Amino acid sequence: MKALILDKISKVESMPLKIKEVDQPKPDIYQILVEISCCGICHTELDEIEGRVVPKLPVILGHQIVGRVKEVGKSVTKFRPGDRIGIAWINSACGNCYFCKIGEENLCNDFKATGCDVDGGYAEYCLISEDFCYKIPDNFSDVQAAPLLCAGAVGYRSLKLTNMIDGDRIGLFGFGASAHIVIQIIKGLYPNSEVYVFTRKRGDSASKMAIEMGADWVGATGDIPPKKLNRAIDTTPAGYVIREALGVLEKGGRLVTNLIRKESFIPELDYQVHLWNEKELKSVANITREDVKEFLNLASSISIESKIHEFDFQDANKALLMLKRGEYKGAGVLIVS
């Protein structure tokens, strides 16, 4: 089968993914062989390529996978050949530790990530346990479904962790693949809330998209919004954004940051300005299967629509470089077959 292989840590500018012919994997008794239709492109892939998140090497990247069941192991009972399924960042967890038993498998020490610890979706085929894949709702095309599996699911988890209630003001710092889905969730679940969006600079393409999608106010990170925020979500790779977001939180406000790694350090905080009055900072670590299931059902019920930029399989390096430079809006999706 054809696969895009990352052999070594390097800069995205070096065009590090190479198309190679590799053996098609074979499922064990509980696994499914998936023929991949498309795979979402995620900022985490930049982190893996450049070493901020360390993958196994060599590795096939990609963790927002949509495809069809090609073959099943003899003990698989939940899916059959021809079924359309999705695969997300969570590839497996131990199922036995404290965290798994309380429903927080995202914190399991044996958590394995798709396209990082095991091979992912930048290929014609991949393997997945029947317990770690999901039926895709019928009202989504393959391409529309792909970003829901990470950008959407982690955005949904981030929003849950803010403890938002209807009527809260929420700030979205960064407006890319995840945030442009989150604003749709907010508009669907919290109709009396205001959404303020903070982008790299006023008037950029992300700002324009935020206005089109119903943001109540749009500015650049560092701008003072009309009112302080009760909740905030940071999806940016820049460390300074955490300080700026905490600075515009209301008393008792909570900031959730949903990056695995920041590309720069968080500047020094002033306790009086950034944390006092019961402000909170919380990180998101991975996702659970329940997050994905809940979000797919929600996305179907409120008709989430991702802004998609499609890329041919052979253009994966170009797509990742464009993502790094912020040269397209919404979510990138790699077309595999």
TrEMBL record:
CDD domains, A to Z: CAD2 (cd08298)
Cofactor: Zn(2+)
Keywords: Metal-binding, Oxidoreductase, Zinc
Gene Ontology CC entries for this record: cytoplasm
Pfam families: ADH_N
GO MF annotation: an example: metal ion binding
Keyword Zinc: yes
Family named by the database record: Belongs to the zinc-containing alcohol dehydrogenase family.
Protein name as annotated: Alcohol dehydrogenase
Organism whose genome encodes this protein: Thermodesulfobium narugense
